[in-house]
Amino acid sequence: MPTHPSAGPRPRRLLQKFALVPLGLVSLWTVAALWFDLQPRWLMIPCLLLYLGFIVFLLLGSRRGVWKAGGWMLMHALILTWWLNLKPTGSHDWAPDVARLPWAERVRDQVVLHEIRNFAYRTESDYVPHWDTRTVDLGKIQGVDLFLIDWGVPLVAHCIVSFRFDDGTYLATSIEARRIKDEEYSTFRGFFRQYEVIYLLADEHDVVRLRTNYRSHEEVSLYRTRLTPADSRRLFENYLGWMNHARVQPEWYNAVTMNCGSAWIRLLDHAKIGGITRWDWRGLLTGDGDKMLYELGDLVTDGLPFAQLKRQAHLNPVARAADPDPDFSQRVRQGRAGFGR
């Protein structure tokens, strides 16, 4: 039976068109990587022009697709190798709220924690800096509470993990992007080598209250987890280890692979806690992290369906009412699932 003359090449042409999408995305990423991360800065424009010129040469030069594909892959392999080998320095003029790296000294179960952030805020940008030193007993860790912060980006949330001690005190931990002075955080720039990681220790009256009472665009939810004292202690020890390591060997922050949520997923997975795996997509898109923990049975629910639990977990109105109270942490927990009445 005769076939149409174009029946053979048509699938190939369709495949070539579909291939342009990932190729185009990789090229866009490469342009952005050169734009943001190339140092010294005077090299940026010449290298971008050289890169774009090479792309044009590949498109218009050789007619053999294998040469074009080979040249394209080699060029991007070289650029990716350069990018992956960029090293954070740890030495910049840092923004005041991330200026000091916390660190810990441990003697058996006694741990002295340095540079715990405890700022007094008048507004989000007007505050009195204060850094505490605190001694904690690892044997007195009772559990873990989770704050999820919705800041208006669909499926994305910031995580604050707070450790509860048997004397009723709490210590909040937050994995954040360390910015230089006068620099605003940008999610887009967070995909590149623009920020370093800080493993923050903070008082809840600082790091939670900042988001509920002084940032108008953030909504905070609070959940009690089912982590046992033993698992809570192991998680805390892992956090301290990563925190001390980052102090001597800085790490890059990344908006996907090394952010406030994915880093915690790595910690939980590493410590084999809560049935968490780093391969669950909700570890990257942390806006659904509470639903993931609910489905895994890791949250105290008091029998509530998830939708109702999520509604009662909303914290902002209560936090604003508790603003001047030194018992802020106790006030915001009253009456919520898992926290008693």
Count of discrete domains: 2
Return the string of H and E elements: HHHEEEEEEEEEHHEHHHHHH
What class do helices, strands and sheet pairing give?
A: alpha+beta
Oligomer: single chain
The largest sheet, given as strand count, sense and whether it forms a barrel, is: 5 strands, antiparallel
| Global outline | globular
The largest beta-sheet arranges its strands as 9-8-7-6-10
Helix content: 25-40%
Q: Unreliable runs, pLDDT <50, ≥5 residues? A: none
Ends apart, CA distance between termini: 81 Å
- Give the number of DSSP strands: 10
% residues in beta strands: 15-25%
- DSSP summary: helix tally: 11
Radius of gyration: 24 Å
Mean pLDDT: 87
Q: How would you characterize the overall build of this protein?
A:
The chain has 341 residues and is of the alpha+beta class. The chain has 2 domains: 9-84, no CATH class; 96-333, no CATH class. The chain has 11 helices and 10 strands. A 5-stranded antiparallel beta sheet has the order 9-8-7-6-10. A 3-stranded antiparallel beta sheet has the order 1-2-5. A hairpin with a 2-residue loop joins strand 1 (103-107) and strand 2. Helix 1 runs parallel beside helix 3 (65-84) and helix 6 crosses helix 7 (262-271). It is globular and about 70 Å long.
